[in-house]
């Protein structure tokens, strides 16, 4: 039997098997363009050339609360100004906001805006910290053989090269070290300044451990390293025979993409290390940190295109935050927009237990739901893995891999057999999002240890099966 071939006329599209696509589902391709910064009175007369200059961005970056609030005069209500002023008094992180970032906030809705939530604290939204919260909740210092190097995983280490960033995120898990001291007297920050002697001890340790193949250069933020420091760290690590992979970690492209476009020396230094690594069959990449689709603009795409043109791989790590990216539509748009600008979505972290930002945390249950909803909307290699960075040093665990999860008490228990065998690591959902029965138990301090022990007992019973 011969099959009959039906030819489609040249001026007609092939027969559709799916209904026409809703144009709104392609919104991830629509990037903010134009002189959007002129909506801010302070930047109304700033030219495009100035705004795209990384030196101008750095010089105009706001590092004092009074200057930030002065820049917002006329954009927000007096009540908001008072609310933010009081919020900063209790914040563990100092203020540092770039003009680019400030211009992306929708100041007609400052309380709801997802970017404002990440960088400007408000007293009215502040919630008590979870009673199980501890500084350095990930125990990075406990796993540090030398100051500024965390060696937790068998073949990977975290190199904290410096303690400054182009902006300061409220939710930073390293508020124990990053940025200047704040008014919080109880917070004593560890000094991790860029220091040749400290770095030398790190290079010596890495060279002495043949199992170390993968080094993350972070801080602080590698954006704040000078070009000569990028070269020094990159080449010193490439010269160690067993180091095969390297990642420069930075929030910078999300808050100041202008640096990639106009800081030619820094850009050339990064590309030089990437190219030398490739010539040695070693992988050098850039890891960045976008949390919301509104952080990705036409300027971002130009910056990512420049990196892509030089063969620089860029991956993204987001932090799951309530009111920022905890809705399916928002997270899906973020993932697809990242892919649109050639940034590979890599991880979405369940928010760490960080002081002073309890209103930004959400539940493990929310992360599970988001992962199920996002998976299948785009290619698998552009679908992030949702993880809990297990408090106490268990490392990154896939969010649904818990040994036990009680949605009433909000306690989830994880194990890390390849990292710290035999140990159990507990994560705690924010109390205000728990059902009433769970909230009532947390109100009674005598119940705290009981709830923890119940969770451990159930996790241990499962682990024995």
TrEMBL record:
Signal peptide: none annotated. Keywords: 4Fe-4S, Iron, Iron-sulfur, Isomerase, Metal-binding, Pyridoxal phosphate, S-adenosyl-L-methionine. Its cofactor is pyridoxal 5'-phosphate; [4Fe-4S] cluster. The keyword Iron applies. It comes from the Bacteria. Transmembrane segments: none annotated. Residues 1-22 are annotated as: Disordered. Pfam families: LAM_C (PF12544). Residues 373-398 form the Lysine-2,3-aminomutase C-terminal domain. InterPro entries: Aldolase_TIM, LAM_C_dom, Lys_aminomutase/Glu_NH3_mut, rSAM, rSAM_sf. GO terms for molecular function: 4 iron, 4 sulfur cluster binding; isomerase activity; metal ion binding. This is Lysine 2,3-aminomutase.
């Amino acid at each position: 039997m011969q099959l009959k071939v039906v030819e489609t006329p040249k001026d007609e599209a092939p027969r559709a098997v799916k209904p026409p696509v809703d144009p709104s589902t392609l919104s991830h391709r629509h990037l903010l363009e134009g002189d959007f910064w002129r909506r801010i009175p302070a930047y109304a007369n700033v030219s495009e050339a100035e705004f795209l200059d990384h030196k101008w961005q750095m010089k105009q970056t706001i590092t004092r609360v009074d200057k930030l609030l002065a820049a917002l005069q006329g954009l927000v209500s007096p009540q908001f100004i008072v609310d933010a002023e009081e919020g900063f008094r209790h914040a563990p992180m100092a203020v540092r906001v770039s003009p680019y970032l400030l211009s992306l906030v929708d100041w007609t809705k400052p309380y709801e805006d997802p970017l404002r939530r990440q960088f400007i604290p408000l007293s009215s939204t502040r919630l008590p910290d979870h009673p199980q919260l501890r500084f350095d909740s990930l125990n990075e210092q406990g796993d540090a053989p030398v100051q500024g190097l965390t060696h937790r995983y068998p073949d990977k280490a975290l190199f904290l090269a410096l303690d400054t960033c182009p902006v300061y995120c409220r939710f930073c898990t390293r508020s124990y070290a990053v940025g200047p001291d704040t008014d919080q007297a109880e917070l004593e920050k560890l000094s991790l300044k860029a220091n040749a002697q400290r770095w030398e001890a790190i290079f010596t340790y890495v060279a002495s451990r043949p199992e170390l193949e993968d080094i993350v250069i972070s801080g602080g933020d590698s954006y704040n390293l000078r070009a000569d420091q990028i070269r020094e760290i990159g080449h010193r690590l490439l010269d160690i025979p067993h180091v095969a992979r390297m990642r420069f970690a930075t929030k910078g492209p999300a808050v100041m993409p202008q640096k990639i476009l106009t800081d030619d020396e820094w850009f050339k230094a990064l590309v030089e290390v990437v190219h030398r690594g490739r010539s040695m069959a070693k992988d050098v990449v850039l890891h960045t940190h976008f949390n919301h689709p509104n952080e990705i603009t036409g300027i971002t795409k130009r910056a990512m295109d420049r990196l892509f043109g030089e063969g620089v791989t860029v991956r993204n790590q987001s932090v799951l935050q309530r009111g920022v990216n905890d809705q399916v539509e928002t997270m899906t748009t973020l993932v697809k927009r990242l892919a649109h600008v050639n940034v590979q979505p890599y991880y979405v972290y369940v928010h760490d237990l960080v002081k002073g930002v309890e209103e930004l945390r959400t539940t493990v249950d929310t992360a599970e739901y988001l992962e199920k909803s996002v998976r299948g909307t785009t290619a698998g290699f552009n679908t992030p893995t949702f993880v809990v960075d297990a408090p106490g040093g268990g490392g990154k665990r896939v969010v649904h891999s818990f040994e036990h999860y009680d949605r009433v008490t909000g306690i989830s228990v994880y194990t890390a057999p390849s990292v710290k065998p035999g140990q159990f690591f507990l994560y705690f959902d924010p109390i205000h999002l728990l059902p009433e029965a769970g909230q009532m138990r947390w109100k009674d301090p005598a119940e705290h240890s009981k709830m923890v022990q119940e969770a451990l007992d159930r996790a241990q019973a499962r682990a024995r099966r």
